[in-house]
Fold this sequence. Notes:
This protein has helices spanning about 30-35, 50-60, 65-70, 90-95, 150, 185-200, 225, 250-260, 265-295, 325-330, 340-345, 360-365, 380-385, 450-465, and strands spanning about 5-15, 40, 45, 100-105, 125, 165, 175, 175-180, 205-210, 220, 300-305, 335, 350, 355, 395-405, 405-415, 420-425, 430. It is an alpha/beta fold.
Amino acid sequence: MRNGRPNFLIFMTDQQAGLTQRAGSGVHMPNLERLKANGVSFEQAFCPAPHCCPSRASFFTGLYPSEHGVWNNVDLAGALSHGLYDGVRLFSQELREAGYEMYFSGKWHVSAEAGPEAYGFDSRLYLPGLKRPFGRWERRPDMRDYRWLETGNYPDEAVKQGPGSIPRPGYPSYRLYGEREDPYGDEEVVSCACKWLKDMDKSRPFCLYVGPKGPHDPYVVPGQYVELYPEGSVRLPDSFGDEMEDKPGLYRRTRERFGILDRKEQEEALRHYYGFCSYEDALFGRILDTLKEEKLLDDTIVFYLSDHGDYAGAHGLWTKGLPCFEEAYHICSVAGFGGIQAACGEENRVVEEPVCLVDYAPTILELAGIQRENRLSGMSLVPFLEGTRPKTWRREVYTQTNGNECYGIQRSVFTEDFHFVFNAFDYDELYDRKKDPDCMRNLIREGGYQPVVRGMYEKLWRFAYDHRDGLGDPYITTALAQFGPGVMRDHT
């Protein structure tokens, strides 16, 4: 401890499915197991949105997208917003003001208007792939800014270019998986972080954020990690064959993208995805080793997280997007070392209560002894890290998205028994999580479940009210919810 405050090491992978941290998953992650053995695993951890920027912003702010203002990936021309609402603060700013040394290495993806140095992190940053300095967007670029016609990378005919290739007429070629050393520069991200750990001023508490880009698609990974999963050793999810006839048309259209791949290719995609997770685990191990070498483990609370999940073959889907299945929202979430095992009184403690990325900002601030004046939507995880349970805790998980790069208002509620999805662009969904955990049967049109649907709408509208979510437009052709906000009980 430095001045009575713990250090923080945050390792956030990109697009890692929560199932990969579970015991018995078959995914080789020995370094994450080291962390689990010295900490707490949150098995029911979720992100609030199914892609990078909104979820990362929620992690740093402790707020939902409707509160921090980041709805889409901020560096794209058609993004609804390119940065946070004015006045929104990140926990990194609070730590910096409390005397923490703040270091950042890797992927940012919170704002296109300002970088991490504007939010409390040290100016010595490593941001791989940064092609331009951060600055305010003066206008929204259009297709001409990408020289799409002149480059020749947009073929007019679709040609399959080997295993895992998905031809798309008029678009650049896409290959779902492959092999390459250091595919996204994560080696340098981790090397930079390890160097900082060795060189930093150890008289002051620090927070080091490390953001690798893997295992984001395409699943291109060093071959040695793919070889950890022999051919025929991986099994596609039970829902893989779901044709989704009872689900929104967008889901089927998305599935068709990957339907061109035969079953062997899709099994290969899963091998490469798992290999990518193992590769990131090896990089994480280098950081743990450096912490140990520098005698910092006892004073450093280590968080291993992912920003969102990956379908990983569920329902015949890959990557992430609007299909609102648990696989896109279920994330890795483990906290360890820094005295956590001793505090909670047991090794490899597993927490089954539902948690969310919004919970990490209040957790880190409490651990640092910082009281926040402004309200946060997240709830501190500290009681779980100390081996107890909070007096009150959420029973549901709520999600918010207005789409990735294709817009579509979608909200969902996960309860212990049901998963409800409101689709403003199509019909809704209701799944029985206990009887049908793979979400194969949509119950939304079955009359006997209408009381459940109404109850879910009550929850959804109450959450929207509490978190300033502007869903209440009553116009006849846009207010397509089956039950409007008037069904809320106990009107405020």
